[in-house]
Write a structure and sequence with these properties.
about 60 residues, elongated, single chain, mainly alpha, Substrate Binding Domain Of Dnak, Chain:A, Domain 2
Length: about 60
Amino acid sequence: VEALRTLRLIHYAAWLARRWDDPAFPAAFPWFNSQQYWQARILELREQIALMDEPPLVA
């Protein structure tokens, strides 16, 4: 599950980045180009790495 969540986070950022040249995107997502946004994403990805390093839950 965590690997899929990580993939979703990366895909969403890539989706925004690919469309950044469209004038509507900077207006709709002004936070995307901020240092704070990217610092938060890096922290989130580091947390995901830690979660994926944990042993799997077994029923």
